[in-house]
Amino acid sequence: MTAPITGEEAERRLGCWVLSDGRAGSEAQSLGLAEALGVTPELRRLEVRPSWRWLPPGLWPRPLAALAAGSAPLAPPWPELVIACGRLTAAPAAALRRAGQGAVRVVQIQDSKLAPGRFDLVIVPAHDRLRGPNVVTSLGALNRVTPARLAEAAEGLAGALAELPRPRVAVLVGGSSKVHRQTPNLARRLGRDLAALARDEGAGLMVTVSRRTGEAAAAALRETLAGTSAVVWDGRGENPYFGYLGLADAILVTEDSVTMASEAVAAGKPVQVIPLAGGSAKFRRFHDALRAGGHTRPFAGRLEHWQPPPLAETARIAAEVQRRLDLPWPDLYERQGDHERLHR
Description:
Blueprint: H1 7-11, E1 16-20, H2 24-36, E2 42-45, H3 50-53, E3 81-85, H4 87-100, E4 105-109, E5 121-125, E6 135-138, H5 147-158, E7 168-173, E8 180-181, H6 184-200, E9 204-209, H7 215-225, E10 231-232, H8 241-247, E11 250-254, H9 258-266, E12 271-274, E13 277-278, H10 281-292, E14 296-298, H11 313-325, H12 332-342
Parallel strand pairs: 1-2, 1-3, 3-4, 4-5, 5-6, 7-9, 7-11, 9-10, 11-12, 12-14
Antiparallel strand pairs: 8-13
């Protein structure tokens, strides 16, 4: 059992730890919140013993003993703030809060199925059902999209895509999941719609696929777009995802990913949602909320032009975290205002 902090160790507490289970989406949410708080976090990736990974976090009797030999160490001196996201980080994060005896504040992102009272704050998307006095809801997933990050990424791609016609359309293609299905036939249908945009509206297409798209669907999409103005990322090198968002005049995103849709609307551009097979009530609640707020519209083969209202959820949540936990970073509200103004 990790020892509680003592007076001298408490004096040496500095900064913020991000606990990660190695999943890119979860890690991005935690890092996005830390960055919005204005801190440079220390990233600690956890390796959980195989025999523990399948147990619900509430059944881990000694959470820190569940960490494998290759895991990042969790030992004093403790930070002021711990941010964790996902099921596998929840029990270790709660253990750090206990060890800190009130000096370590813990923010857990996503519903880990542990009681919210085991954390200082729990942040969940509004389409989840979890509620409570220390539960904060966001419209979608927290993310690392900021005007500065998109501008820098766009500048890095501007030369290579200088000849791409306008309007420039970023196309974010996901794939199959627990509740959605991506198939070669759906990819071909999307490819035909995109080819029509390039032909009829003169659009320049910037297309990126994900690992979940699948080789067959990705190949069908590339085949259908051959001979058009589309630039399709081939999966080699660094993903131009943020650069595409920064250069885009409009964004199309498949409906299967809360993270991708949340990042798309955070870019402050018109966003249209591409349907896939399947779905769930939770996803419908999420997409209904985006449409109701004027942030997205369905994609039915044509671009729609409107100015969506500003949406800076990560900055808003960061301000709420600071307010509730009384964190010592007083310029956060000024930074939040700057972020929102840049999206107008």
